[in-house]
Structures are given as C-alpha cells and as structure tokens.
Amino acid sequence: MKALLAVAMLVLQVNPASTGRASGESTRFVFAWRGVPVGTVSLSLEAGRFTYTSRHLHVREGRAGERVREVTLDVEATGRVAGADAVPQALWLWHGPPPEGCVKGREELSGQEGPHCVTSRSPTSAEGTMLGARFRASYDARGRLQALDVGESRFTVAAPGERLRTPPELFADGVPVEGGVDGALKLVPSKQARPTAPVPDRLPEMTDWTPDAARALSRKVHAAFPDKGPTAADWRSGGEGEAGGCLAHALRFASLARASGQRVGLVHGLLVVDGGPARPHAWVRVAVRGGGTLDLDPTSLDPVRADTHLPLALVAPEGPGLEAGERWLALLRGDWRVVRATRRE
C-alpha cells in the first residue's frame, strides 16, 4: 500500500503556480498558536532558490528572545527540490490552491517528508492534510496565500512593505503607554485601523460560580507554580508543569475548572506594572452567580484593575483563539495605541 501511495504521489501534478517560474518574490506571515503571536515566517523565491526563514519567540531562563532558523533549497521548474521527489511544504501552498490529490511534501525545518493532500479546493481555498495534520488555506483573487490554519496554529500574511513588529519584540519591549501613570488603560485606533467589536463581557459557554470558589482556585493555581516565568508549560493545553508564565497559569486554572464542571474565559491582554510599558499577559474571567463577571490573575494574585490590565480578547481556553490572534496582529501592525483615559484625544 505504501508503495502504491508513493507512486501515486509521484505521478500527480504539482501546482503549476508553485513552480520556480515565478521568481523574485517574497512574502511574510505572522505565526500564532492558540491566538498568541509567537513569530514570523518569511518565504522567498529567487532564481530557483526557495528560502524559508522562521523568526520565533524563544524563552531562555525566563526571558523572551528571538530564535532564527533558515533553510534554502534549490528547486526545479516543477517545484520539487532539486534531485528529490518532494515539494517544499510552504512553496506547495504559497502560489495558488494546489490541485486535488496528493504529493510528497517536505517540511522545511525538520526535513520530514510525507503525503500532502488536498481533499477540497476552490479558486480561493484549499483543505486537506499535511503529514496527517488537517489544514485550511485561503487565497486572494490572484491566488496568493492569505491565511493558513493547521491544528491550533494560524499563519496570516503581512501586506507588502507593511511595518510589522515581531512577536519577540512585542514580548521583550512591550507597548508604550501614553498619558502618564494614572487612569484606566484603553486602546485608541489609528486612522488605518480596521473596525473591531468590543471585548464581550462573557462567553455563552461560561458557567456561574461563586467568587469565593473562583478565588480559592486562583490561589491553588498560583501555589502550583513555584517558579514564575515563561516556560514550555505556557504552550501546553493544561499548563502542565511546575514552572510557567501567565498563559500556563490561566490554562491550568481553566483546566482545573473544567474538570470540576465549570467553564471560564481566557483573557488575552496587556499588563502595566510600575509605570512601565504594556506587556502581553493572560488571565481568566469567570461568570458570577447572580450576575456579572470576575477577572482573576492567578499568576500574581493581584487585583485585575482597569489601570493595570487591558483586555484585548476573551476566548475559550481550549479553542484556537482566532479572534485573539486578529487583535494581536492589529497591535503588531501599530493599528492601536495604548493610552490612559486621562489623556485628551
């Protein structure tokens, strides 16, 4: 069966728009996991050489930095790697929806090869699997990739020439806060900002709690992490581990709440401490029995106040967080400024 599949992949056509004929192009994408921006991916094709560059958030000893990885491959006019029978994964998707069927694809950074299949296709979309993982890609009218969803990850294109802060820069440096050190935080859109809906007070699936029970769980989660700071636990669905940052605390809270039959919301937002810049942060929101909501920060146990915590999005903890991803992307683009409510606009 494996031999038949290999033969089938070899005889199926590669997307003609993905071949080396279109040269001298480059595109950049923002990579987000569960709505959290973690890096950028740049693609370039020049004179038969395809380059894949990943710049992503790298945490070491509790500090956010950047890790750069780059792979350059010689590609033939068919789009396949020179001297091989595999197509670079990103190149296969980049220029136009690939035709239905399967090819052998190569994941650029790992070098892993295997079936890349399109099961459904239209002029502006493609769905299928890559190395067994389901994907959905969307394209513009020219057939250029605009967004790619793979599992809990999303890649969103950046416009040509667009000034875009990298996610590592956002985590390391934060966002300047205008208007002094007192007063509630708010977002002020730039002229080019796209209209966005306000952050909802609650999600439909959130269940009612008593404040005492929610605060008790927050203290329990806080105590479960002796070491505070970004680690791999922040990228685990339940925040598993004994060391972790704000996302690990929020995900652990949500996981324990779910185990007891309760549903909460995950807040993506910004935190301002001691008059510094606004830095990415995460906390939780619970629905209160009798009406209203309560925001809790299990990382610090500090009160969630309008002058320190600024919500960007409220999402389901176990979901892909696509809305949060759009809000973070707008912040990276510079569509919003963070100001104090006391500032006159």
From TrEMBL:
Residues 1-19 form the signal peptide. Residues 107-126 are annotated as: Disordered. Residues 241-287 form the Microcin J25-processing protein McjB C-terminal domain. Keywords: Signal. Pfam families: Transglut_core3. It comes from the Bacteria. This is Transglutaminase domain-containing protein.
